[in-house]
Amino acid sequence: MNRPRNGNAYYEGPPKQPHHPAASGEVDAGSHDERTPLGPLADASPTNRSVGAYVHVPFCTRRCEYCSFNTAPMEDRAGVARFVDAVRREIGIVAGAPWAGDVRVGSVFFGGGTPSLLEASELAAILAALRDGFALDGDAEITVECNPESVSRAKLVGYRDAGVSRISLGVQSLDDAMLAAIGRLHTAAAARAAFDVARTAGFDNVSVDLIYGLPDLTAETWRSTVDGVVAWRPEHLSAYGLTVDPGSVWGSTGVAGLPAEDTVVAHYWTMVERAAAGGYEHYEISNYARDGRRSRHNQVYWRRGEYLAFGPGAAGFVGDLRYTNVKPVGRYAQRVADGDLPLDTWERLQARQALAETLILGLRTADGVATSVLAERVAGDAALTRRVAAWREQSLLVDVGSRTRLSDAGFLLSDALFMDLL
Fold this sequence. Notes:
The protein has 422 residues and is an alpha/beta fold. The protein folds into two domains: 6-348, pyruvate-formate lyase- activating enzyme; 351-421, Orthogonal Bundle (Arc Repressor Mutant, subunit A). Helices cover 38% and strands 22% of the residues. It is built from 15 helices and 18 strands. The protein has helices at 77-95, 120-133, 153-162, 176-181, 188-200, 219-232, 249-253, 261-277, 296-302, 329-337, 351-363, 371-378, 382-393, 408-412, 414-421; strands at residues 27-29, 50-57, 59-60, 72-73, 104-112, 135-146, 166-172, 206-212, 236-241, 281-284, 287-289, 307-310, 315-318, 321-325, 343-348, 369-370, 397-400, 403-406. The strands form four sheets. The chain has a nine-stranded mixed beta sheet, sandwiched between helices. Strands 1-15-14-13 form a four-stranded antiparallel beta sheet, with no helix packed on it. Helix 3 (153-162) links the parallel strand 6 (135-146) and strand 7. It is globular, with a radius of gyration of 21 Å.
């Protein structure tokens, strides 16, 4: 399991935020519109011709200690085959929406879980269903999250043949003791070997995920990890600050050795400085890219674009509708087998929520937001006007032409401003 995830893609990075960016809207949970198997998606009206697609693959060999995402044990290949069939059926249902022919899919992201537990033929079957149901751009960015221990050259060559163009490798650390402590199944040497395998399989767009703020993580160990990975020269890096979420093993059992806040802040600055020295643009709170190699799919989220959701627990956004699928794999598959979309919760966003999302998501990035949009939000709110003015005075918030963005220091403190913007 890697760190970024569709379910919380609106808010990634130090520290992680709640899964839904605007919790004030009315949410319908578990209700079903009998008029159509599409439920509320039948009435959605996409505002963009280009959308993303997220596919959640829940299977894991072992659940990491920090993981709070929707995962399930991979018991046998027959179970995986049933899952693949359910995803293909779900894609077919959504492809029957009255608006499906009006959109193109510009990016696909396989997250999990451990998507690299899928065989190449299984992943190819899902992509074939997407191509059959939707207009998939010929140059679409198609990403698969991979764990080092579950890849081979033959598998990654198969992924390439299926149309995958980008690999996101969950490394997390280059310290073997740390990897064992957090429940990872690979070593530092295996992580490097997996990166090399991706290169020999023909991938020229590889991202590497790291986590800081881990228990007993020293400045020296973190610096060594960052420098080691930067030396590999991947096209993209992600570094996420650990949060101990209630749904994780550590959230339920507790964990000793968590570093002090100033230590975590130091970890963040080490990443910022080492990445910059290595030629990476800090283009989002937790993400760094070489020139032209930003994550196109994640930018759909941060630019408040629209995206379709497939798989158990996946979250989507079409028109004014945010929705989430049911999480249990068996329940998900049964709902699809019955011919219905497996929706769990959904909400229709109001104008105030949409404005807050636009600001929060945009301010996560180096591109920032239109200054006029920020001015619209603070108008008439004296307390927020003072907060924004103070951030500008402290150079946490910076105006560049007609846009406003957070500085690196502002990224680190962004939670406080985001809560006010909500």
